[in-house]
Amino acid sequence: MIITTNRLMCLFAASALSLCSFAQEGGGNNVTVSGSVQSDMMLPQEDKAIGAEKYEWGLTNTYADVTLMSKYIDAGARFEFLEHPLPTFQEEPGFKGWGVPNIYVKAHFKNLEITAGNFYEQFGSGFILRTYEERTLGIDNSLLGGKIVVRPAKGVTVKALSGKQRRFWKLSEGLVSGADVELNLDQWFKKMADKGTYLTLGASWVNKYEKSEDIMVGSTHKLDLPEFVNAFDVRANLQKGGFNLLAEYAWKGADPTMGSSVTGRDYSYIYRKGNVAMLSAAYSKRGMSFLVQAKRSDAMVFRSTRGETSSIASSINHLPAFTMDQTYALAALYPYGTQPNGEWAYQAEFGYRFKRRSLLGGKYGMNLKVNFSHVHAIDRNDHAGNPYDGTAKGTDGYGSAFWKWGDQVYYQDLNVQIEKPLSRSFTLNLMYMNQFYNQTIVEGEGGMVHSDIYIAEGKYKINRKFTLRAEAQYLNTEDDEGDWVFGLLELSFLPHWMFTLSDMYNCGETKEHYYQGYVTFNHGSHRLQLGYGRTREGWNCSGGVCKRVPAGKGVTLSYNYNF
Questions:
Q1: Are 392 and 265 a contacting pair, CB within 8 Å?
Q2: d(CA 126, CA 1)
Q3: 297 closest CA partner among 329, 336, 344
Q4: Using omega within 30 degrees of 0 as the cis cutoff, is the peptide bond preceding 335 cis?
Q5: Distance between CA atoms of 554 and 55, rounded to whole angstroms?
Q6: SS3 track for 49-70
Q7: pLDDT tens, position by position, 131-146
Q8: What is the pLDDT confidence band of residue 191, given thresholds at 50, 70 and 90?
Q9: N or C: which end of the chain has fewer CB within 10 A?
Q10: 3-state secondary structure 23-59
C-alpha cells in the first residue's frame, strides 16, 4: 500500500477534525459528505474455444470514495480492493493489491487553493502534463505531493505543483514538478468581452528529476543520462461567437529511455528531443457545426520512470487521438492508439440539422454528421537519408523533416451518421464507416486491415414506461479474422429495469459467437447489473490510450452507488 493504515487514519482524522472545527466556529458552512462505491465482479469460466483462461473462482475491482467538504477545507480518500483483479488487469505487473492509494486535503479561499496529498492536474491539452483516472484501462497516475493555485489579479491563474507519480501500489522513481500560468485577456479589456471576443494565453513548464543509472554502450562506454528533463508548452485560444481557434506547441528535452518504436523495436536510449504542434478550428451555430484539427508529434514519450514498459503506467503527458470515439461494437473493434513516438494526425467533422418540413428533413427533421480522420507516419531517416531502424543508442537517433510524411498510414476512417425520427415514437440511426487500421502499429503484428462497417439502430418508444432499442451491424473485410455481424435487443422499463441481449459473430476465420445478456436495475442512487456471456480478445482504447483485453467468459455483477 502507498500509505500505511496508521498514517492514513491519522491524516484523515486530522482533516475531519479541521473541517468540524471550521464548521463549529462559524468559519464555514456545515460539513457535507459525498462519495461513491463501484464494484465490478466476475465468476470466470474457462473456454478454450475463444481462449478464455481459468482464473480464481471470484474476481473483483472495487473502489470506494469519500469526500468531506466545507466552505474552506475539503478532504477525501479512496479505498481500492484489487487483490483479485478482473482478467483485463491480471497480466499487468504491480496492479494487484489493496489499500488507500489516494488521500488529500485541500484548503480553498477566494484567490488561493492549496492541496496536499494525491491530486490530478492537466496543463493545456495535456501535451506535457496530464494526470487522471480511467478505471476501464486501469489508469491512475495521480501525483502525491503538493499543489497551489493562485489568482493574484483579475484574469490571471497561476499553478505550481510537485510530487511523485502513482504507479499502481508504488510510486515512480522520478519527481515531477511544474508550473502553469493562464491569462484571460478579455477580463482585462472590457471592449473585447462586450463584443463577445475571448482570448486566453497559456504557458507551462514541467520538470522530471530522476537519478542516473548505468547503461552501457558496448563494453567500454556508459551513457550520460540526464537527471533533469524539462518540457515547455505555449498555447492561445481565441473564441468569437461560434468560432473557436486553438493553437498549441510543446517541446521536451532529451529523455533517453526504452520507449517502443512504431516498428515494434525499441529506441534504445536515444537523445532525441521531442515536440508536438497542434492547430484546431471549430465553428458552430444553430443547426450546423464544423471542426478541423491537425497535430504533429515527435518523440513525446514522457514517463516518470525511465525504461517503463507498461502501456498505462508512469505517463506524465497525454496526446489526444484525432479519431472519433466509437460506441457501436463493430465500429470499435479496431480502435486506434496514439503513437507518441511520432505521427501526423488530421481530423475534420461536419454536422448539420435539416429543419422540419424541409426537403430532406421531412416532418420531423434529420441530423447528419460526417467525420474523417487520417493518421500518418512522420519522416525518419538516419541522417544519411536511409530509413531509421531504431538502433542508434547514445545518439540523437534520426532526422525528421517537419512537413514530410513517412511511408506508412497508421489509421484512417470516414464516418457518415444519420439520425432520422420517423414518427413521434420511432427514431432510426444509420451509420457507414470506411476504415484503414494498421494492426502492426497498434498491436505489433497483423498488417493493414481495411473494412466497411454498416450500422442500423432503431429506438421505439412503446409508451411512457417501455422503450425498445435494436442494433444490427455488419463489418466486411478480407483481412484479419474476416467478416463480423452483431445484433442487440434492449428493453427499458422505467424507472427501474433494463434487459439487454446481444451477439457478435465472426463469419470468417473463427466462426465463434460472443453472446452476452444483462439485467440492469436502477433505484435512486443505486445501480445493479447482472450479466453472463463471452468477451472477445482485443483492444480497449480511450482517448488514444489502449490496453489489451483478453478473452473472457462468465457471470458478471456490477454495483454502483453515489451518495
A1: no
A2: 28
A3: 344
A4: no
A5: 11
A6: CCCECCCCCCEEEEEEEEEEEC
A7: 999 999 999 999 999 9
A8: confident
A9: C
A10: HHCCCCCCCEEEEEEEEEEEEECCECCCCECCCCCCE
Q: Which H helix or E strand runs over 289?
A: strand 288-298
Q: Over range 455-473, report the average pLDDT.
A: 96
Query: Measured between alpha carbons, how far is residue 546 from residues 5, 306, 408, 412 in Å?
Result: 33, 20, 20, 17
Q: Helix or strand or coil: residue 388?
A: coil
Phi, psi of 50 (to 5 degrees): -105, 0
Residue 336 and residue 321 in contact, taking contact as beta carbons nearer than 8 Å: yes
Instruction: Find where cell 484512417 sits.
Output: 412
- How many C-beta neighbours within 10 Å does residue 168 have? 23
- Reported as a single tens digit per residue, the pLDDT across 137-180 is 999 999 999 999 999 999 999 999 999 999 999 999 899 999 99
Distances (CA, A) of 17 to 5, 35, 79, 545: 18, 18, 20, 40
| b/e code 15-54 from CB counts within 10 Å (16+ = b) | bbebbeebbeeeebeebeeeeebbebbbebeebeebebee
Where helices occur in 86-242 by DSSP H, the ranges are 190-194
Reported pTM: 0.89
Report the DSSP pairing between strands 484-493 and 405-421. Answer: unpaired
Query: How does pLDDT run across 476-514, given as a tens digit for each residue?
Result: 999 999 999 999 999 999 999 999 999 999 999 999 999
- Cβ atoms 174, 166 nearer than 8 A: no
Give the separation between CA 143 and CA 553, rounded to whole angstroms: 36
Alpha-carbon gap, residue 300 to 306, rounded angstroms: 14
Positive or negative, the CA dihedral 148, 166, 263, 338 is: negative
Residues 360-383 have pLDDT tens digits of: 888 999 999 999 999 999 998 887
Tens digit of each residue's pLDDT (9 = 90 or more) over 242-258:
999 999 999 999 888 76
d(CA 346, CA 279): 10
